Amino acid sequence: MNDSDYVFKVAVVGDGRVGKTSLIKMFTHSSFEKEYIKTIGAQLSSYIKEIDGDKIKLLFWDIAGQDSFHFLRPSFYNNSRAAIIVYSLEENKLGKESFKHIQDWYEEITKYCGDLPIVVFGNKVDLVHEKEIDNSVLQGIIKENNFRGSYLTSAKTGNGVVKAFNAIIEELYVKFKSISPEL
Ligand code: G3D
Ligand code: MG
Question: Which residue segments constitute the domains of the chain, with CATH numbers given?
């Protein structure tokens, strides 16, 4: 029997080393209930949150990112209700490449999942001066792809992490509560 009123699977994607695993760890505070699913190349972390007396279980699927796992991506994405694309704000190759690849991740998500809410996390904000971030290109991508929003996060300091995750959880809760209010 399911002990939660809602269960939402959230796919967390983005290039390797942008901080996906660190972000999930920071938000869920947990090392327990975590499972590495070797065949798919994904790590699964669960988190329970209560909103208005409803118990919501989040299942964060954290992609390992290796190309060799590409053929198993359908299993990774299957039944996702939302997706988070993470890139790094670092001013180096990883920062530039991971930003450029937002579009590729977006295309992969829509290929396997169709239309679902997607948000973008610009991580490692602790490594840059927030005021110097040029948001214009990102805003263009957000508009073009109909992303639900973008957030600046740091899995190191915790800055912005709770706010960013909660935004997507609340969106899912409102969406599914309106579909099945009797739950
Ligand atoms: P991934 O799961 O996307 O591959 P990880 O990324 O969570 O494994 O993080 C990759 C590296 O970046 C790790 O470094 C981690 O500590 C660091 N990192 C993650 N998030 C942040 C952040 O917000 N700020 C800073 N400064 N570093 C971050 P190590 O050296 O520990 O492997
Ligand atoms: Mg990882």
Answer: 6-179 (3.40.50.300)
